[in-house]
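Side project, low priority. Logging it here so it doesn't get lost.
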Amino acid sequence: MTRKIAFKTLGCRLNQYETNSVASTFINAGYEIVDFNKEADAYVINTCTVTNMSDHKSRQTISQAHRTNKDAVLVVTGCMANNHKDTLEKNEQITYVIENDRKGEIFNLLDGHFKGEIITPDELKQDRFNYKSAEKSFRTRALIKIQDGCDNFCTFCIVPHVRGRAISRTWEDIKANIKEVLEFGYKEIVLTGVNIGRYEHEGLTFEDLVEKILEIPGDFRVRISSIEPEGFGDKLFNLFSHPKLMPHLHMCLQSGSDKILLKMLRQYTVDEFKAMVKKIRNNVAKFNFTTDIMVGFPGETDEDFQETYKVIEDIGFTHIHTFKYSIRKGTRAERMPEQVPEKIKSERSSIIRRLAENNKKKYRNSFIGKSQNVLVEKINSNGIASGYGEHYILVKFKADAETRLKDFRSVEINGVEDKEDPSILATPINNS
C-alpha cells in the first residue's frame, strides 16, 4: 500500500526550503504527496511563530488536518514547535512535535512509524543542515539554504530563541547543492537563511559566497532572499552588474524612525539604509526594493510613523510586508512601556498598505514598452503563462510553441492589469 503524505508550510522561505527537501525524500522513497485538504496517512505542518497571528494560523492548520483525518499521524515542526513545545505536546491531536534542529529527520521518524518502529523525537539527529537537494519541489525555483539562526536579538524578535544562534553552511555543501538542483533542471536558485548577510564560514563572507556562486557554470540565475541591511557593502553592490544576479532585494527596514530603530536594537540608521539603496540604484537602473515594515512598536508616535511613511515614499518600495507589532514573550519589547493601542496599529497598517499599492502600480507601469526575461512557472488551461521577470514582477502572457515550464521566455511588456495586485501583461518575443 502506498502511503499518502500531505505538507503545509507557514512562514518564511527557509521553512519552504526545508519542507521541499523533506517532501522530496518521501517522494524518492515511494510515498505519494497529496494536497493538504485531502485525506492522508500523515500530515506534516511546518509552523511559524513570528507573531500572534502566525501562532493562530498554525493552530488553525493543526485543527484542519485533524478534522480531515482523525486517524492520521500528525507531525508539527517549525518555529512554533520550539516556542510552544510543551503546549503542543499536550495536544492529543498531535502525534509528534519536532523542533527545528531535528526537522531534517522527519522522514526517518514517519517511515519508522509506519514500519512499526518505536522512535521518539528526542532520538532524532540534531543538524540544521541535514537536508538533501529537492529534485521534485512545490516550487519552480530551487531554494538553497546557506545559513541558519541569528545573533542580533532585536528587542521584538523571537527568532534567535526558536532558530538558535547563527551558523553557516560550508561552501562545499552549498556548491554541491546548487550543482545538483541545476542537474535536476532548475534555472533559478534563491539563497535563503535567517540572517544571510551575516554568512561567514572559514573566512568566506556573504559577498564572497555570492561571487563564487555566480562563477558556477550554467544557464541559471540567482536571487537573494530576505536580507537584513548589514554584513555587506560595496562588493555586493557591484556584483549586481553580473547578468546572473537578479536586480531585486527584499531588504528589511522595519521603521523609518531612528528612534524606533534604536529601541528595536537594529544595526543601522535610516541614512545608512538609504545610502545602500542609492549605491545599488546608481549601478542598476530600475532596481527593485521590497521590505518589511512594523507598525505600532512600543513608543511609536505619530511623528515616528510619519517619518516611516516619508522614507517609504522616498525609496519607493514596490512591495511591503506590513505587520503590526505583536508581543512575544521573552523579548525585551514585551516589557517596554507605551504599548500602542491595537486600533492605531490597524490604522497605520492600512495607510502603509495603500502607499505600497500605489508604489507597486507606478513601478510596474514603468516597464511598459520594455522587455523582461521570465521564468515560466505556470501555464493555465487557457494557455496563459505566468512567471517572474528579472526584477521580481509577475508577468502574464499568451504561451506559444517556445513556452515551456521552468524555462526562460523573453517578452515585451504592453500593459498592466487593473487589479488590487496587478500583473504585467506581455507578448512573447520571437527568438528565431
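Brief comment: The radius of gyration is 22 Å.
Revisit when time allows.
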